[in-house]
């Protein structure tokens, strides 16, 4: 099977022109088929403030009212997505920017929750792997904005980490998939304050141990749980690490590699 | 050759939720391969006002400074484009929304003008017909936002009429192309104030005559000149008419048909 690398890039890179530019140079030079999934929360928050739209957050998740949905659609699927694509084209990396509605790439449903109304937030139902494969097979790399749709005309705001995971799982039948979560830290850390305490590798046994010893930063637990789910669903390898070290993350020379 | 219908829809439809919805129902039911090109000037103007960005116009063309480019990228390629795609998906019409940077579909250069600096405005250089053909051949209809790129990392604002014309011309080698400009009037009118005075057909001879008699509204002259250029470059038929009559425009039962 061909290799496919799916890379989620975090907000701290998107928000910083210099860091984004250098990350995209690095992404463009990654060989083979690849999909980039981006968020961009801070730019949306800034735009909301400029437009006087108040933002509500619950458990680090944005409550997406109608005005906020409009803003994230503009900022994620418009401004950020198209600027990333244009910059990749300038680096000789042919790319196409999509949201989940495009070609019905990611269908979702509006989140149902017993107590919290998250608003226009979508939980993923299905991925159109054949369109993604057709684009990748034409050497067109895909840049995904974290907006999905319910196929009934509604756009929905969807967590970018989840989108990366769902695409990785769905594409595993067609490619040998490596999933990379790049963010501001060097990987999963033993000491959240000390970037030199990266755990190079985690497997189910060591994960159990680390959790029992209570040494993993609470915020990392859902990411790791998702990583193990992805592995169970056919993804070959998940790496968590610093966006600035993308090439080293891919080769396993940096970051935390999660494997079964 | 397969037929391809390229439809430009004007701002008055985009700005009106009800009209847009009914137009999209009509578009979704058009048989065969199709490309929709949209503008959306008024929504961008409204967003600029909300953000306190002053808009400059020269000869009906927006001067696109850096802030305005950001706004049109968000509004055209984000908000409008993705909402159109989601609504088409809801109507069972598989569609993908692109700007010119996506898959390098439309490459342009920043306009050079001896006296006016239009800012970030792009004049079209080339169309990537093979990606468009590959999508259409997978029964994915294309929705184009009027944003292009210079392949050096710059997004550029480009007139939607021009984009429709350039795509129509470029695709003429691969399909029998019909180009439809849909707007608020019923067609080319003998009396600009009277929608019942549609000229059903114009050819080069009658066009010469109409111009000599000075009966065509000045604003229509560039549209008609462009239509004749498109015909010379291989487009089979150009129709100008009311968006609400889309099906009738396609069959030639409404609007003005321009043919050689």
Automatic annotation (TrEMBL), chains A, B:
<dbReference type="InterPro" id="IPR004662">
    <property type="entry name" value="AcgluKinase_fam"/>
</dbReference>
<dbReference type="Pfam" id="PF00696">
    <property type="entry name" value="AA_kinase"/>
</dbReference>
<keyword id="KW-0028">Amino-acid biosynthesis</keyword>
<keyword id="KW-0055">Arginine biosynthesis</keyword>
<feature type="binding site">
    <location>
        <begin position="40"/>
        <end position="41"/>
    </location>
    <ligand>
        <name>substrate</name>
    </ligand>
</feature>
<comment type="function">
    <text>Catalyzes the ATP-dependent phosphorylation of N-acetyl-L-glutamate.</text>
</comment>
<keyword id="KW-0963">Cytoplasm</keyword>
<keyword id="KW-0547">Nucleotide-binding</keyword>
<feature type="site" description="Transition state stabilizer">
    <location>
        <position position="8"/>
    </location>
</feature>
<protein>
    <recommendedName>
        <fullName>Acetylglutamate kinase</fullName>
        <ecNumber>2.7.2.8</ecNumber>
    </recommendedName>
</protein>
<dbReference type="InterPro" id="IPR037528">
    <property type="entry name" value="ArgB"/>
</dbReference>
<feature type="site" description="Transition state stabilizer">
    <location>
        <position position="223"/>
    </location>
</feature>
<feature type="binding site">
    <location>
        <position position="157"/>
    </location>
    <ligand>
        <name>substrate</name>
    </ligand>
</feature>
<feature type="domain" description="Aspartate/glutamate/uridylate kinase">
    <location>
        <begin position="3"/>
        <end position="241"/>
    </location>
</feature>
<dbReference type="InterPro" id="IPR001048">
    <property type="entry name" value="Asp/Glu/Uridylate_kinase"/>
</dbReference>
<keyword id="KW-0418">Kinase</keyword>
<dbReference type="InterPro" id="IPR036393">
    <property type="entry name" value="AceGlu_kinase-like_sf"/>
</dbReference>
<dbReference type="GO" id="GO:0003991">
    <property type="term" value="F:acetylglutamate kinase activity"/>
</dbReference>
<feature type="binding site">
    <location>
        <position position="62"/>
    </location>
    <ligand>
        <name>substrate</name>
    </ligand>
</feature>
<comment type="pathway">
    <text>Amino-acid biosynthesis; L-arginine biosynthesis; N(2)-acetyl-L-ornithine from L-glutamate: step 2/4.</text>
</comment>
<comment type="similarity">
    <text>Belongs to the acetylglutamate kinase family. ArgB subfamily.</text>
</comment>
<keyword id="KW-0067">ATP-binding</keyword>
<keyword id="KW-0808">Transferase</keyword>
């Amino acid at each position: 099977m061909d290799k496919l690398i799916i890379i989620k890039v975090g907000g701290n890179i998107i928000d910083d022109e210099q860091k984004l530019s250098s990350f995209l140079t690095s992404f463009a030079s990654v060989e083979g088929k690849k999909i980039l999934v981006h968020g961009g929360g801070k730019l949306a928050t800034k735009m909301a403030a400029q437009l006087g739209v108040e933002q509500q957050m619950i458990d680090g998740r944005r409550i997406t009212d109608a005005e906020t949905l409009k803003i994230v659609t503009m900022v994620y699927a418009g401004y950020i997505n198209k600027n990333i694509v244009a910059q990749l084209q300038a680096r000789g990396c042919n790319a196409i920017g999509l949201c989940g509605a495009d070609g019905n790439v990611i269908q979702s449903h509006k989140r149902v929750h017993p107590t919290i109304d998250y608003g226009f937030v979508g939980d993923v139902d299905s991925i159109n792997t054949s369109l993604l494969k057709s684009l990748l097979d034409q050497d067109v790399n895909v840049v995904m904005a974290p907006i999905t749709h319910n196929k009934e005309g509604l756009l929905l705001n969807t967590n970018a980490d989840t989108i990366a995971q769902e695409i990785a799982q769905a594409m595993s039948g067609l490619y040998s998939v490596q999933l990379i979560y790049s963010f501001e830290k060097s990987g999963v850390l033993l000491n959240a304050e000390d970037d030199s305490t990266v755990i190079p590798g985690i497997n189910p046994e060591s994960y159990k141990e680390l959790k029992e010893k209570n040494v993993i930063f609470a915020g990392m637990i859902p990411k790791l749980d998702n990583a193990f789910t992805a592995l169970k669903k056919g993804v070959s390898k998940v790496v968590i690490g610093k966006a600035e070290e993308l090439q080293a993350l891919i080769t396993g020379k940096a970051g935390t590699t999660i494997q079964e």
